[in-house]
Amino acid sequence: MSRPAELFFRVFFEVNSALPSVRRAQPAIYFIVTRDPMATASKALSASPAPLKPLRGVRVLSLALNLPGPAALMRLRAMGATCTKAEPPAPAGMPAGTPGDPMGQYNRKAYATLHDGVKVITVDLKTDKGQAALHKVLATTDVLLTSFRPSALAKLGLGWKELHKHHPALSLVAIVGAPGARAEEPGHDLTYLADNGLVTGLDLPA
Question: pLDDT tens digits, residue range 107-122?
């Protein structure tokens, strides 16, 4: 493992271990991006006149869309990582400048907040040109963050074996709905709440 990647994972798991103990059937990254990841570490980080940047020099590229990916980038950037995000082109018919991330299409304020300081590029992973552009960026990237199901990544030619073959120093961090046999199931916040019985009793439309 490269030095930047080793530092990334050490900080990642140290911060995660400081979080309250909760149900671990979901991946650790989920708790980093949906709870306050700096809950315990923030006091130590802010106490210094010059805030600590333990991930300074670590280059992160994200393919993760909607809330979890951008929220994770915001936390990583706060710890000093240099963050870039690759988004698909916006749907046809959308106004010029519309983000490719669905969140940016229905909540521009939240999108702007979460992407502050993040370099956003447009990459169509379904085209040869887009694939070439992505690999060019990956050549100078330490960590790739994704929220695709494993089979979806493999279908795009971005499975772990392919990535490691072309970029041996790259580390892959995946935000998935659940580990193990359920990793292929798409999931998001409401899915997790329902799975834990927390939606029962809520007055939600059918």
Answer: 888 888 889 999 999 9
